Amino acid sequence: MSDGGAILVTGFEPFGPHAANPSEQVAKAVDGRVVTGCTVRGAVIPVEHVNARAAVAALLEEVRPRAVIHLGLAGGRARIALERVGVNVMEYSIPDNAGFKAAGEPCAPGGPAAYFSTLPLEAMLAALLAEGIPAYISHTAGTYLCNHTLYSTLHAVRNAAPPPRVGFVHLPLLPAMVAASATDDPSMDLTLMVHALELILTVVAAEPHPAR
Amino acid sequence: MSDGGAILVTGFEPFGPHAANPSEQVAKAVDGRVVTGCTVRGAVIPVEHVNARAAVAALLEEVRPRAVIHLGLAGGRARIALERVGVNVMEYSIPDNAGFKAAGEPCAPGGPAAYFSTLPLEAMLAALLAEGIPAYISHTAGTYLCNHTLYSTLHAVRNAAPPPRVGFVHLPLLPAMVAASATDDPSMDLTLMVHALELILTVVAAEPHPAR
Amino acid sequence: MSDGGAILVTGFEPFGPHAANPSEQVAKAVDGRVVTGCTVRGAVIPVEHVNARAAVAALLEEVRPRAVIHLGLAGGRARIALERVGVNVMEYSIPDNAGFKAAGEPCAPGGPAAYFSTLPLEAMLAALLAEGIPAYISHTAGTYLCNHTLYSTLHAVRNAAPPPRVGFVHLPLLPAMVAASATDDPSMDLTLMVHALELILTVVAAEPHPAR
Amino acid sequence: MSDGGAILVTGFEPFGPHAANPSEQVAKAVDGRVVTGCTVRGAVIPVEHVNARAAVAALLEEVRPRAVIHLGLAGGRARIALERVGVNVMEYSIPDNAGFKAAGEPCAPGGPAAYFSTLPLEAMLAALLAEGIPAYISHTAGTYLCNHTLYSTLHAVRNAAPPPRVGFVHLPLLPAMVAASATDDPSMDLTLMVHALELILTVVAAEPHPAR
Lengths: 212, 212, 212, 212
What we know:
alpha/beta, 6 helices
């Protein structure tokens, strides 16, 4: 049995024009694994900000993770994006799965402008590049559900003692999603994305465990 | 033993800034396979136009293929590109592997402006998309060695009776090539590229055999 | 009065999603000018291949130009594109203005695979870059009306003695077209495009006059 | 004489591979103008974070502006970018003009993760689009001098009573910069950029004057 604590990995349901969501598939693929003594809990959350936040809150309560890795889809990006910052704004270019289209509302009224990810981004990046996986550190997670979730979880745990490490990883489209569209968007194989997450989990699991 | 004739697949050596070339790896991966009764001969040709042409001529003489599928690398493209046309011009943005940098010379002095690929591009495209592999029909193979080879082989077999079908397929960068560079270029897994070639070979092998 | 002969410049009507077409505006802007002794005739042709070809035929008959510069819009391109080749295929991603959507038909049944532009592309490019105007030599004019017109005019004059020089120049979107869309497409000011055409006309007008 | 207060506009010197900087040219172009009663002070600041911050501090002291509009160059962007957020990190992909290459240092040690721009971005965007100028609201100003300056000025005025409005506008490359490079980058005419700033100044000058 593992005693290194738990790592929560979340993916999103499909949304907008997309019939699939690689973040959902990757989260399911790693669910139940044990990495360097840490148990991985993979879960799928809805593409609607109130319910997404509630789902994450319930998972934090249940899993009590030492780290949270949110995953999401970033159509049009060619590489895995390690997000450095979540900002306190929701501005949607398309409605969420409940039909809501935010137009500048804050993620958390009265909250700070932004939070930085607390995952070890540089070490994660080095691990991915060393294995030949295209990746970079991004400074915008957009203003849709992905950014909202990164911001909201960091806001939710801000007073925890100790807080779990929290971050967000954006994934490219799957090849079949590009083939099904008429676009010239870049894509990445699911196998490579799952391997990327394995590397990220290994780096995150190796971080010193916060005192309890 | 197969009696459906041979299909020649060529890839290129690495060139310019690239330490690898997926076209070489794919050509080697399918070498020796039998597809719908056709024997596949995979070969690697040099990135230098005189020697590339000579290498292809020797392979045509030796293999006497019913079809020729040239493969090459197109850094920056996100999808597998089925090339429709080879044009009679060489204009290199970087030198070839012999240090030669063409500046508008024809591939074949006195030759026609262009040849169309004689592979069944529409059927190849349909087969790729049906399997979820990003692909499209391209109308420019550039003006480097790839275009030269497409044009030159079509020019070489123009009077054969019957000529083999001839075409060119451009491949994206491999993920590790993007990871090793500082670029935001799209990439594609080698596994997916090899699968794409398997599908293409199946379509090409199903074409009626030219009478001899 | 000018005695250096005439240069025909054509632009296209708006088409598809576009409410304007810079090629129309540039053709009108240079209509009637005299450049190095050459009279410029600017005309607008329809976005429908049969009528476009007929309109060009009538203009060739009437103007008897020493050179023809077709202009068209290439949404998504960032620079002025001097097209080197027109290919004998029509494959439309959107219908033309008559509702026709070609699917691989030749521009001229039985015609050669392609014609090269007979304009002095290298000199035109040098003139544009020297004035700080982004430009390049392109090897695909697409497979829509633009390519059709380049191919068809070169095909139409192939037996003329002497034939006029013929070529095609693709223009980026106008800034207002990008502002009106939700896209991130590049654009170019009309003033800069008109200046580009002035430079091109000067280069073309300086070419030796074919004997009559 | 104008009595509506002053608006400070800053541009940057050329840097890295660039022989020019449109932000410098636009800042100089609007220097001394009076817009809706506001006097515009255009100034050029160095591409080095300590000196840039000092230069801005001196200008704030001298000009005592009601609003600050920092301008900078974003090579590769096609539209004018109204930046919404400055983040507390410096991570340079190329050295600054003093040879310093930041690797994750904060702009202000101990400062918050980010500040939001306090300019009226939505109204600025609407004014630009209504005049046919490609523009958008951006959520990353990068992590080079541009972001540093946006963050640092917002940090510097955080306790002012009242603070001036502060924001950052990224400009595309000039056409001549693209022509001089071998890239396919988008560009925008200086005339259009200056007009964009005129529109932005008009919107900013119309904002209620903070009480003093």
